[in-house]
Amino acid sequence: MIHLFLAREGSEECAAASVEMLEKREPLPSGWVLWIDLDNPDEAEENLVIAWLECLHPLTLDDMRRPKRFEDSIPHLPKMENFDNYLFLVFNPLRGSTLVTGEAPACTQLSCILTDQVLLTWHYQSVSGVDSLKQQIERHASMVGRGADFLLLRVIDETVDGYLPVVDQIEDNLDNLEASLVDNPVPGVLRDLMEQKRAIQGLRRTLLHEREAVARLMRGESPRIREHQLIHFRDVHDHLLRCLEMLETNREMVSDLVQIHLGSASHRLNEVMRVLTAVSTIILPMALITGIYGMNLKIPEAEWDHGYAFVLFLLTLIGGSGYIYFRWRKWL
After folding, report:
1. Does position 182 have pLDDT exceeding 70, yes or no?
2. What is the CATH number of the domain that holds 78?
3. pTM of the prediction?
């Protein structure tokens, strides 16, 4: 589906825009700003927009169509590329605001083309940042007139803000796992820790690439970004750094919790072995005595009327003395 938002630069209102403008290949007049959002487009809609722009490199088209060609594969990693007539940017927004238990954060691919007057957003799945910007434009139509680079800034900013709830959820999950390790350690905690570790690694890899792309925009490496917008990209870069710092802290916390879990498991094993060793030590002399009197030989005490009671008393004395000694040493 194609969504169009058209406005004159500096205007407070959006002008009427329809797909007919693209079909007739009418050029965009100077001083106007156009945002084209391709939401899960079919092949005809893709070709219509490509023909109207007339500047997209085949490699750019190949990257933008990757989710359609490889539906089950991971999206293209975030990147930024400068071409003669446009800026090409790839981001990986999250599909939801919550983390599904047992699964890594699900990302989709958002491809952006920026020219001096046009912003094209291309995606095959719903992107919350794009949907949020559309809702904002419905309330504040003047946003379109502030320029295509401003619209790109808003899309990126909304995308980055979408990571914070998931990062916070990971931190809360680790706090809960830490409490369970201390209060009631169970075997399944290690599996949960590994799931959180995979989530952190996947999200961190995405954010590292996005940080590099935004850093290049912030440094003014693209002529499509006006100078007064660079400071706003710096703010987005700070948000990415904050997310990465939180993930780095969480990653270290996972390592610490794994060590705590392994140490706790080793401690429980030592406790069990200590009890078993104490019991074996108590039983060993008793077994020795019963072994001696169980030999098929003539033993003097065997003819004694109270020999059986004497052996039972001796066994009880040895076992009780051993138990009292181990309790005194706090080994039991």
Report:
1. no
2. 3.30.460.20
3. 0.79
